[in-house]
Specification:
- This protein has about 190 residues and is α/β, with parallel strands linked by helices.
- The chain has one domain: 3-Layer(aba) Sandwich (Rossmann fold).
- The chain has 9 helices and 5 strands; from the N terminus they run E-H-E-H-H-H-E-H-E-H-H-H-E-H.
- The N terminus is likely disordered.
- The structure holds adenosine monophosphate (AMP).
- Adenosine monophosphate binds next to helix 2 and helix 3.
- The site of adenosine monophosphate has 16 residues, from helix 2 and helix 3.
């Protein structure tokens, strides 16, 4: 079980729309519990910044707020999860984002005789998401791209909510609170599992 003492074997997914704060929350859980927070968005942005062959291939897709195809992402996540620090646990932020990617994650874990422990859904109303995204002012955060990302989330990622709920893995937290309040709710949820 993944309680406070055994957080380093927590295998969890953070699910939520862009701007929900799931990345911030994942980093806080990681700092407390010792599991690596793995952000595929950060990995892709880094690849773009480095100008690697992956970066060159995905730059336009990131700029447009669309999703990188499942096949490329399978390669990215499989390599990352094979790293030593992810052997006993991980917290995924931004993966899976499609039902196909959820299948890939299942396959990777099955090969390792492992299972997903938990999916944490961070819920935030859409108008608040747009407000936050505009305030963040990243170069790729124009209002058009924000709206595109939200529609991609609704169409391709939101189906994962029911997918994981039906497997009994989903726990939702109210993301429309302060960072500390959301973190406290997530810690409660993790300690219930102790
Ligand atoms: P994020 O920082 O998680 O919002 O990701 C930034 C961008 O990277 C997304 O808008 C996508 O273009 C791309 N990306 C990140 N993770 C994935 C994924 N699992 N599947 C497809 N594209 C992704």
């Amino acid at each position: 079980m993944a309680g406070v003492d055994s957080m380093n074997r927590l295998r969890a997914v953070m699910l939520g729309p862009p701007g929900s704060g799931k990345g911030t929350q994942a980093a806080l859980i990681s700092a407390r519990g010792g599991v690596p927070a793995i952000s595929t968005g950060d990995m892709l942005r880094q690849a773009v910044a480095e100008g690697s062959s992956l970066g060159v291939r995905v730059k336009e897709i990131l700029d447009a707020g669309r999703l990188v195809d499942d096949e490329k992402m399978a390669d990215v996540i499989e390599r990352r999860l094979a790293a030593k620090d992810a052997e006993t646990g991980f917290l995924l932020d931004g993966y899976p984002r499609t039902i196909g990617q959820a299948g890939t994650l299942d396959r990777i874990l099955e090969q390792r005789s492992q299972e997903l422990d938990l999916v944490i859904l961070v819920e935030v109303p859409e108008d608040e998401l747009i407000r936050r995204a505009l305030a963040r002012q990243r170069t790729d955060d124009t209002e058009d791209v924000i709206r595109k990302r939200l529609s991609v989330y609704r169409e391709q990622t939101a189906p994962l909510v029911d997918h994981y709920r039906s497997r009994g893995l989903l726990k939702a937290v109210d993301g429309d609170q302060s960072i500390d309040e959301v973190q406290a709710d997530i810690q409660d949820l993790l300690s219930v599992r102790a």
